[in-house]
């Protein structure tokens, strides 16, 4: 019984665990209480060959269909300690919440994250970023589990950050918590910057619809959204998955889109862009089988 490792929910709707709100079911979702439960849970799942994965806020994920395994959520890993400019925060903590909280006490550094609806763990995994800043600018070190479930510390350098990338992607490490270094700054200045950027995003991005943010990375020196818009693909639909009319680098869910609809639409855009410009667009979003 895996419920001994944490609160366990069966037969869950994918839309309740992801920002795309795609159709489909997850067989099991579990919330381990602490590190020991997490380690024992993973040992159990491996021993019994049960498919599993950690997710954060599901804001970068496309579940292709039903997920016949165990989704591990680190919501209980949400401890926050702020000591002067040093912030120690659990992997399950919400990025936007942390950006607002630190801004409100005059700590600068997470303004870029105030519109990124992920968790600390997912943000570090992706090296999430915006406005020329990213997690790599603020992370000092993290505590993680390596593939053998040993507790390790990884410094900023050891995290091997690059554009939307970190070592977590290749090494199967699990982030448990992170130490961030912020800077003192006038609170009103930080809050004003956050407010201005929020207004810009509301105007330029289809935030009124479910999505997982930008679909494609920007090719060097170009904007994926502009390329897709120039091809006249805004409004293109497969099922309920649709290229946003507001921002062509967003795919939105008009109601009942499936992961397959989104994947097909991504492939269609890629094909058209390759055909016309000979550019290989790379998706930022992760497809989960
Ligand atoms: C409206 C909107 C706007 C967005 N804007 C931006 C933006 O400006 N910039 C940007 O970079 N992204 C943006 N995103 C995408 C997304 O929010 C980020 O990629 C975010 O970092 C994903 O975090 P998450 O917690 O939701 O991760 P998830 O989507 O849940 O997971 C992503 C990956 O991280 C892994 N992961 C999660 N937690 C851990 C952990 N503790 N340890 C190891 N691996 C883990 C998962 O296994 C998965 O492989 C946007 C999304 C939306 C919906």
Alpha carbon gyration radius: 19 Å
Which structural class should the secondary elements be placed in? alpha+beta
CATH fold title of the largest domain = Uridine Diphospho-n-acetylenolpyruvylglucosamine Reductase, domain 3
Main pleated-sheet profile: 5 strands, antiparallel
> Strand portion, in percent?
25-35%
Description:
The protein is 27% helix and 27% strand. The protein is of the alpha+beta class. It has 3 domains: 2-73, Uridine Diphospho-n-acetylenolpyruvylglucosamine Reductase, domain 2 (2-Layer Sandwich); 80-190, 2-Layer Sandwich (Uridine Diphospho-n-acetylenolpyruvylglucosamine Reductase, domain 3); 224-282, Uridine Diphospho-n-acetylenolpyruvylglucosamine Reductase, domain 1 (Alpha-Beta Complex). The strands form 6 sheets. It has a 5-stranded antiparallel sheet, with helices on one face. A 4-stranded mixed sheet has the order 1-2-5-3. A 3-stranded antiparallel sheet has the order 15-16-17. The longest helix has 19 residues, at 259-277. The relative contact order is 0.13. Flavin-adenine dinucleotide (FAD) is lined by residues 19, 53-61, 74, 91, 115-119, 121-123, 125-126, 128-130, 168, 174-175, 207, 211-213, 286.
Write the layout of secondary structure elements.
Layout: E1 6-13, E2 25-32, H1 35-47, E3 52-55, E4 61-63, E5 67-73, E6 80-83, E7 86-90, H2 95-104, E8 107-108, H3 120-126, E9 129-130, E10 133-134, E11 139-145, E12 151-155, H4 167-171, E13 174-181, E14 183-184, H5 187-204, H6 224-230, E15 237-238, E16 241-243, E17 251-253, H7 259-277, E18 286-288
Parallel strand pairs: 2-5, 3-5, 4-18
Antiparallel strand pairs: 1-2, 6-7, 7-13, 8-14, 9-10, 11-12, 11-13, 15-16, 16-17
Flavin-adenine dinucleotide binds next to strand 3, helix 3, strand 9 and strand 13.
């Amino acid at each position: 019984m895996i419920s001994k490792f944490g609160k366990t929910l069966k037969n869950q709707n994918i839309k309740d665990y992801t920002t795309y709100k795609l159709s489909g079911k997850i067989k099991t979702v579990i919330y381990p209480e602490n590190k020991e439960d997490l380690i024992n849970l993973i040992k159990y799942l491996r021993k019994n060959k049960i498919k599993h994965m950690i997710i954060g806020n599901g804001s970068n994920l496309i579940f292709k269909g039903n997920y016949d395994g165990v989704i591990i959520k680190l919501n209980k890993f949400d401890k926050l300690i702020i000591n002067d400019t040093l912030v120690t925060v659990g992997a399950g903590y919400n990025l936007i919440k942390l950006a607002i909280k630190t801004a409100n006490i005059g700590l600068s550094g997470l303004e870029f994250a105030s519109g990124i609806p992920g968790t600390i763990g997912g943000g570090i995994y992706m090296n999430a970023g915006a406005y020329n800043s990213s997690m790599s600018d603020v992370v000092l070190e993290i505590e993680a589990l390596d593939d053998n479930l040993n507790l390790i510390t990884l410094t900023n350098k050891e995290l091997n950050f690059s554009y939307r990338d970190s070592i977590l992607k290749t090494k199967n490490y699990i982030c448990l918590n992170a130490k961030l270094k912020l800077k003192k700054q006038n609170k009103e200045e930080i809050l004003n910057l956050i407010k201005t950027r929020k207004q810009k995003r509301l105007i330029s991005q289809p935030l009124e619809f479910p999505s997982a943010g930008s679909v494609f990375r920007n090719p060097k020196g170009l904007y994926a959204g502009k390329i897709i818009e120039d091809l006249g693909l805004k409004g293109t639909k497969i099922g309920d998955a649709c290229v946003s009319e507001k921002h062509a680098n967003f795919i939105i869910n008009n109601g009942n889109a499936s992961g397959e609809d989104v994947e097909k639409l991504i492939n269609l855009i890629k094909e058209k862009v390759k055909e016309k410009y000979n550019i290989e667009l790379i998706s930022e979003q992760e497809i989960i089988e």
